[in-house]
Amino acid sequence: MATQSPDLVLDIAAISARLLEAREIAPRAGTITRAVAGLLPGTAVNVYVVYDTPEGKAWSVRATTGDAVPDQVIALDAGALGILAGDAKPLLLSGRSLRREEYAHLNVRKTLHSLAYAPLTTAKSLIGAIEVVSFDEPLSEAQLHAVEVVAGLAAPALDAARTYEEERHNALTSVSRLTQFYDIEKAFHSTLEMDRLLPIMGAKICEALECQAVNIWLLEGDESLKLMHQAGVDPTVQEGMHDRPGQGIAGDVSDSGEPVLIADPQDERLMKRNQDIAEARLESLLAVPLIDQGSLVGVIEAANRLDGTPLDEDDLFVLTNLCETASSALHNASLLAAERKVEILETLVTVSHEITSTLNLERMLQTIVNAPQAIIPFERAAIGLEQHGKYRLSAVTGVTQLDPNAPEIASLNNILRWAILSEEVILVKQHGDEISDPREETQAKFRSYFRETGMRAFYAIPLSDDTGRVGIMGLESSDPDFLSPAHLEILQVLAGQATVALRNAQMYKEVPFISVLEPVLERKRKFMAMEKRRRTAMLALAAAAVIFLAIFPLPLRVDGDAVVAPARSAQIQPEVEGVVSRVLVREGDRVDKGQVIAALEDWDYRSALAQAEAKYQTAQLQMNRALATNDGGEAGVERVQAEYWKGEVERARQLLERTRLRSPIAGVIATPHLEDMAGRRLQYGDSLAEVVDTSHAVVDVAVDETDASLPRAGANGVVKLNSYPTRTFRGVVAVVSPTGTVQGESRIFFARVSIPNPDGAVRAGMEGRGKVSVGWYPAGYVLFRHAGLWVYERLWSWFGW
Q1: Which of 121, 196, 315, 446 has CA atoms 20 to 30 A from the CA of 259?
Q2: Helices (H), strands (E): how many in the chain?
Q3: Does the pLDDT at position 5 exceed 50?
Q4: In which band, very low, low, confident or very high, does the pLDDT at 181 lie, cut at 50, 70 and 90?
Q5: Residues ≥6 apart with Cβ < 8 Å to 19
Q6: Same structural domain for residues 744 and 648?
Q7: How far apart are CA 321 and CA 290, in angstroms?
Q8: Which helix (DSSP H) or strand (DSSP E) does residue 287 occupy?
Q9: Which own/partner pairs from 703-709 qualify as long-range (CB within 8 Å, at least 24 positions apart)?
């Protein structure tokens, strides 16, 4: 269809078709300018769209052709465009009557003959305009009418395009917000360390809300709030401050449990916060409570948007949702902190028990300098003892043969010798080039010591009681802040216990040696008082006993409590996310290695495989066709495509195969109600089932440390379990544990005996008694070995040869 006039031919169908080819405003506006320019040769054509700005409505140029280039943004009431905005009717202006101010938005260097406008209107309002600038000859009413016809087509097209772009923008905004929420949730749960979690939370919330500052208040034991972290700049509060109900906004929110939005800078609550603040004053504020399982744990504040606009209800909604995720992350972090406190207390109790349950000074010293490393992050600890007014370095972490003059220990020995002269706790740290101690001589001493050793912190605490000084304990680390307030409290307790234990051990070593010999001398006097015949008979009997003990062989076995170790097990976990479609086994079923246990929904993967195969076949056909027509270039391109889709087919097959969950080992299914997993969605890391290998069982036989050197791998072992009092289980020692474990007042090692378990009778956790054969030895060695070792240990501790 075409509209004709004496000089004009307008193909409406062609213009409509070109408008429908594009969906965005810019390409449709370009189509309009080209259509009008083709209709009116020698003219410049611009298409404008009305849009909202913070200052009000304005014209925005979306397409232009010709030599009249307009400004990108023009006020709605400016010049000739302002006349059109007021009347919304076609406008034809002669160049003779035009003033430069009326077309000041155009950058032109030629003389204008005519300036014409056709409004773009819908049933709602004015949405834009078509501007025609003529340089060669004046425009006629007929030409303006033709432009109006184009405007009639352009108006609904641009209105639809604007609606489409708004919907797309809203959709992208929603996707972006969801992606941001997902990213924030991942970031919040990326760590369980409270000191790392709070900065992440503050930075992410500040980024999401685009605000000036975020304050994180956490609830203290006295029901007050403490500002634990501040992200950004808020001079009205500082980290470490406390707030209570009635004293501030955070305290009031903690009392009411309701979020607060303050958008008025004249609000009395903000005025109170801004008191005596000259810069970066609060103009708007959000305060949302952190609720975990119905209980308040803190409050998060967000202050001032960066663009200067006040915070609104949308920001309150976002912060409220982020606080839910933050509460969960804080809950997990608090659980870890509580668990660590329990671990610290357990370790402290263990260390205290070890150093107070023995009078062996060397063992006690090694325990004090090594065991606390499990809960205190030091790199080296040392103890110097003072005996009869003389100092002696007695123990260093990780050193069994101590030489105080060794190069790596001499500097530490000198520092401890200097520190023992002080009766107070010493803590010296180096940050950069600054030493924390105020005294110049101490700064010089530790600057040299830190440079020599590479350490950056030194802590020393005196070991003294009511009777005097026992010694000194020192710790050092390359981290200047390795000791927290909790660590300092632990060291105070440990120092007190170590002082008592070391004092008792020193007193025990000073017991006179005659107390050991007196019982021996008394027995000798009684023996010599006997008659000669009786003494001879007793001597002969003793000689026979000695010969028997020295020559006659007996089997030597070491025994101890036995516990069945957990069986070898494996977790069946998905390699891809998906919904369990079917479960093929139940609890107690025996499965082979590689057997399919369950399957995930695989429609998507099958579809992806079919699509990749179709693409691969198509590429193969295109390549063969090109080869048949001797088109080498096209054949090469299609060959590359075929190779690519071949790889995609292989990858799709692998993904489809991963939807079948297989057992990594042979064993028995140990997960109850496994069939109920059908229909449940599994994520990465989720566990579907556990497979336990019961073909063999490992029994840990506790061997005392005095016998730990006897068992060897391959030795025969016998186990009696309480659950089967009439059965004897035989096996061989697989390994002897290289490290010991404290049990009661002694340290034990485990001989791990592997026994066959074809019927699955032996189960993890069963207890009993085990024996390990270690060979044939003289009867005296077998019967009196422990007594001989005890005597040797005592003599060695006294004489130390």
Answers
A1: 196
A2: 17, 37
A3: no
A4: low
A5: 28, 31, 32, 153, 154, 157
A6: no
A7: 10
A8: strand 285-292
A9: 703/558, 703/560, 703/736, 703/748, 703/749, 703/750, 703/751, 703/772, 704/558, 704/560, 704/746, 704/748, 705/740, 705/746, 705/747, 705/748, 705/749, 706/786, 706/789, 707/558, 708/736, 708/740, 708/749
Which of 669, 688, 707 delimits the end of a domain? Answer: 688
Residues 6+ apart with CB under 8 A from 797: 360
Sequence-distant (≥ 6) Cβ neighbours of residue 363 within 8 angstroms: none
CA atoms of 387 and 251, how far apart (whole Å): 57
Query: Residue 422's domain spans which residues?
Result: 358-509
Q: At what angle do helices 485-509 and 361-370 cross, to 10 degrees?
A: 170
Residue 265 contacts residue 277 (beta carbons within 8 Å): no
CB 120 within 8 A of CB 129: yes
Residue with tokens 């030597």: 556
Place of tokens 């969801």: 178
Residue 769 lies in a domain: yes
Query: Is 561 a member of any domain?
Result: no
Dihedral Cα 689, 690, 694, 695, nearest 10 deg = 70
Residue 4 predicted with pLDDT over 50: no
Helices (H), 3-139: 12-21, 25-39, 79-87
pLDDT in tens, 685-742: 788 888 877 777 888 888 888 787 888 888 888 999 888 888 888 888 888 888 888 7
List the beta strands (DSSP E) in 22-155: 43-53, 56-65, 69-70, 73-75, 91-94, 106-107, 114-121, 126-134
Cβ(81)–Cβ(117) under 8 Å? yes
Instruction: Decide: helix, strand or coil at residue 57.
Output: strand
Residue 173 has pLDDT above 70, yes or no: no
> Domain check: are 82 and 160 in the same one?
yes
Residues 684, 699, single domain; the answer is no
Number of domains observed in the structure of the chain: 5
Identify whether residues 155 and 252 lie together within a single domain. Answer: no
Instruction: Give the integer Cα–Cα distance in Å for 77 and 97.
Output: 19
Q: Identify whether the C-beta of residue 239 lies closer than 8 Å to the C-beta of residue 230.
A: yes
- Number of C-alpha atoms within 13 angstroms, CB side, residue 613? 8
* 164 and 110 fall within a common domain: yes
DSSP string, 320-355: HHHHHHHHHHHHHHHHHHHHHHHHHHHHHHHHHHHH
Residue among 399, 390, 391 nearest 417 (CA): 391
347 token code pair: 């370790």
249 CA to centre of own chain: 32
Tokens of 104: 């000041």
Whether the Cβ atoms of residue 701 and residue 772 lie closer than 8 Å to each other: yes
Is residue 711 within 8 Å of 702, Cβ to Cβ?
no
- In this predicted model, what pLDDT tens digit does every residue of 139-165 receive, in sequence order? 888 888 888 888 888 888 888 888 888
Residue 365 pLDDT exceeds 80: yes
| Cβ-Cβ contacts under 8 Å for 561 (sequence gap 6 or more) | 701, 702, 767, 768, 769, 770
In angstroms, the first-to-last Cα distance of the chain is 119
The domain spanning residue 396 has which CATH number? 3.30.450.40
Q: Is the dihedral of CA 239, 245, 248, 249 positive or negative?
A: positive
CA neighbor of 717 nearest in space, from 567, 705, 703, 725: 703
Do the bridges between strand 91-94 and strand 114-121 make them parallel or antiparallel, or are there none, so unpaired?
Answer: antiparallel
